[in-house]
Amino acid sequence: MDPHEVIIAPVLTEKANLLREKENKYVFRVDARANKLEIKQAIRELFSVEPVACNVVRVKGKPKRMRRQPGRTSSWKKAVITLPPGQSIDIFESA
């Protein structure tokens, strides 16, 4: 897979910001078909850093309503990338 297809977007939440600041971990929304090896390779190519670890979580969609019609949000896959001390990803630093 192309690295731009694997990594969809960074996750910018309070919890993700705390992980980034305290533990040097970065959170991304990734393609549901991607595995850990593909995600690590995409991070290497896109950001020129060497990830130490990659943890993957499937986030289940939440039930929602549109007026009286029941529905749910889409399920998605989240990757938490751990970097060694001294390395960082620039897109998070400028945000």
TrEMBL record:
GO terms for biological process: translation. InterPro entries: Nucleotide-bd_a/b_plait_sf, Ribosomal_uL23-like, Ribosomal_uL23/eL15/eS24_sf. Keywords: Ribonucleoprotein, Ribosomal protein, RNA-binding, rRNA-binding. Part of the 50S ribosomal subunit. Contacts protein L29, and trigger factor when it is bound to the ribosome. Coiled coil: none annotated. It comes from Winmispira thermophila (strain ATCC 700085 / DSM 6578 / Z-1203) (Spirochaeta thermophila). It comes from the Bacteria. Pfam families: Ribosomal_L23. One of the early assembly proteins it binds 23S rRNA. One of the proteins that surrounds the polypeptide exit tunnel on the outside of the ribosome. Forms the main docking site for trigger factor binding to the ribosome. GO terms for molecular function: rRNA binding; structural constituent of ribosome. Belongs to the universal ribosomal protein uL23 family. This is Large ribosomal subunit protein uL23. HAMAP family: Ribosomal_uL23_B (MF_01369_B). GO terms for cellular component: ribonucleoprotein complex; ribosome. The gene is rplW.
